[in-house]
């Protein structure tokens, strides 16, 4: 929801009357008059009288149903900083509580994210301490920031970017932590508008168009839900949910999905009268439409840390389209919209009542943990860590703070310092103690990286590093090293082939013929050609063919040994595998021993340096482990024109009795499959385990064999076994 900006005193008073009939409106009028006099002659960058700003800030607080003290403080929040008004004057006219709030807002007026200058750190410390002492200070600051963001277009582009970045990194997460969803959403949308104006405008137009196109569909679903609820004696409101542009933008970027794939564009909210009825409504919805697996969340039973409660579910609605529902009570809805402000119950001096201690518990606990920190910069970092729980902040030995994703390791930290530090990292100390390189860093750790000039990145590091920078740098180094090794291997392979063909290797490597052969193959140099040979992307026989075609000068003495027949097959087929490479490349191929793929399995090829192409099943875990260099993956397919037999391991569990082995063997033979190896063991539960290696033609043949075996009397289970699978 987006609340309209309040522009004058009458609107402000009407807002207050709507939720607080006995409020002291005289004090509000008095504060308005005081602020008008204090800001007389002042104007905002937009040209409007400055008074419009404090009125608008107070108006935002009425949307949170704030008390009069907070609203009065909002009207006066800039008087101590921007006018000649004195604290003593405010206290005399409006009381200590108002002065306390205004003073708190004034002191936290300027915070620059990622800046650790003492003044900013001190202001940040005061903001957090004031938030624990009286939450209204921060609520006024959020309202102040919201109105400033609404009117940001009057500032320079650079200033808009700076303020938007600060808002996105501090104030929006703070609003989220306080549970004030609508402020968080509007702040994020406004930040997107100024940080990514083209993306914002594109999304705004597309969402508006989609809303227009789909309103009939939303109305149809709403009516069906209302009817189903009425038939089951359930009351409640059903309405469409507002579109959060930044949320859509984030989801599209983080999940790499299209606008059309974002689930909650068709989203409804149901507000009912009791907690149990939320579950009853959920049951009704699931009885009407099929729920999407994995899309149900129960935040009623397990509320979020900001006390948000709702049931979330996604169903396959009319016309097969996904519809997301949020189901909650009126009280839950109030808390979801107003967050911590919904718990405003104050004692005489503005402190939160005990009954609401749960809502503020995380903040009080945090202040208690950190109140002994005298260094303002450390305090600032610690607070941010608590607010931005998806990152960790760690320190260099010199006290420089580095922000890393949660789960990061010393290797991530090393590459965050410098590529050279990461490349030569051999170990790390955390708070003075040696830790493994895959140790997960925690907030506040001081990390010292140990290096050695002889160290270089390991492929195994890719299994535990978290940051994209570390992964990219490691992969880049591995690729360069493999390129070097592949050149060496390729040159040795070519040298051997040249000798076999009666050619002088030294002369050939310097010859124009070899360079021309390289260029005909799509390479700029003979080293690139050698690397391709070393990787297995190009066969030495292909190079010889290019040399033979491109030049008649290549020596081929009569005494030279007979040239061996190249391992070629039509359309890139490899002898004996029954596999062909898409793109008709002449490569040595072999079937992987870890997954033993057979025709009918989906397969991929992986280029192994010096050994050609290894064929894996696409679901092979070893293939996933190898997939750090996608350039080495090659599309392959089974060659239906080349019949072949393949070995498959079968594991059969049967009752341990006479005749079972013979009957199983007969069943396999009747399917025209041969048993090449057999191993029989007896388990403790007196079941026999028969492990066979069977020669079959494809997966259909295998299925036929398995089904025949399962029909044998005494057989309990029969299944195909892979090297990575454990026998049950």
Short structural description:
The chain is of the alpha+beta class. It is built from 27 helices and 21 strands.
Low-confidence stretches: 108-117, 345-356, 552-575
Q: Which class do the helix and strand fractions yield? A: alpha+beta
- Tell me, rounded to a whole number, the average pLDDT: 80
Distance between the termini: 55 Å
The total strand number stands at 21
CATH architectural group of the largest domain:
Orthogonal Bundle
Q: Helicity range of the residues? A: 40-55%
Comma- or semicolon-separated keywords:
Ubiquitin-like (UB roll), extended, six-stranded mixed sheet, alpha+beta, 6 domains, 728 residues, four-stranded mixed sheet
Structure description:
This protein is of the alpha+beta class and 728 residues long. The protein folds into six domains: 9-195, Hypothetical protein af1432 (Orthogonal Bundle); 199-340, Beta Polymerase, domain 2; 390-466, Roll (Ubiquitin-like (UB roll)), CATH 3.10.20; 474-550, no CATH class; 570-638, no CATH class; 646-721, 2-Layer Sandwich (Alpha-Beta Plaits), CATH 3.30.70.260. Helices cover 46% and strands 15% of the residues. It is built from 27 helices and 21 strands. Strands 1, 2, 3, 4, 5 and 6 form a six-stranded mixed beta sheet that branches. Strands 13-15-14-16 form a four-stranded mixed beta sheet. Helix 6 runs antiparallel to helix 7 and helix 11 (181-195) packs antiparallel against helix 12. The two termini are 55 Å apart.
